[in-house]
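INFO  loader      accepted 1 record
INFO  loader      residues=388
INFO  predictor   begin
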Amino acid sequence: MNPLIPLKKAIPLFLVALLLACFAIVCVVQAQSLTPSESPIASPSPTEKAALPSPAKSPTASPFGRSRVSYGREECVALPPAPGTEIDSGRKDDEDDLCKIRFDDPNVILCPALYSTNPGTDIYELPTGVSRASFEQKECAKATGRNAHFLAKYKQSTSCSYTPAILAYGKVADALKIHVDVPSVVYRTMEQATHKGVEKMAGVYAHDLIKQTWAGLVSQMANSNPKVIKDGLLYGALLDHQGGIDHHPTLNHRGPDPNPAAPFLASSTWAMATKGSEIRSQIPPSLKTLGQMMAVRDVGEMAIIDHILAQQDRFGNVAKKEKIFWLEQTATGQKLHSVKATKANKPIDGTNQTTMQYLNANHIPYVQFPVMVLADNDCGLRQNSNVV
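INFO  predictor   done
INFO  writer      dumping tokens
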């Protein structure tokens, strides 16, 4: 079927999506603009403080957000789903895991993002036996390929980046029940003193345009820009890490300004997504053609969510993750299974057998291909138009 048809039927949810976007903006602006005694983020009331869970406990329901965890003055808030919709169970778990990350944890270390034109903080698990000083000197100096487990990214409103846009994408994706992968994200504050070390490293390790954008963020904080900082607390979004900065091999091409979408709009994948006929009439359905069929579906969904949230910087920022797919016969018919390629050679839960060993031992055909990930959603909700 045409990948746009189910989403077109969901057009009434556009109002829900816009409401959600407004909700995200209100949450951020409220936290930034109220006085410390009024702000539900910077300084909760004594009653609210008493209701807050301790850092060691699981997040609980909160008047502000779906759940809320406090680490000293810092707070992490998982936003609720859009009204009338449900949160994806996997996303809920990912959001709760994000709120378990403590910036002052001795096993957590922060580095400046040196590969993105919009400044951000990369958060890693400090490898066993490696000192903080050594990691900051050797690994944080790298733009990519740092030798550590990447936990999350922290991004703020600066340049075209806008925290409410980052927060809105996952909720709108759930509301529209789209399939394309959008990373989980939570609202997070950070002590300015914690960020100072990241700024210092960025001043040494960043170059050219990235050095300039980092200097711009530091200047905003120095000038107490309320969209970025208030009372010594930074405001931003903490994102689940989605496999690094691997770009999609066929859907990521960016054209020259002023028409960066030109290569995408000229692609055969976009042509099939907008043709108006069912995918099966254009692509014979089979396991071998699954990757092409999913790509057509994903670009249709990408165009819709990017249009709703007025994305300005998609092309050049279409990521991917490699996945393996196979079919198995069940009592109700064939069922499609998948696993990330990075996990295919790891033991299946509860067994000593890997996915690849299982597939090969049972002579089960499989395919591997890149699946779209919309991991970089910073530059939305600032303008009325979209790049497509």
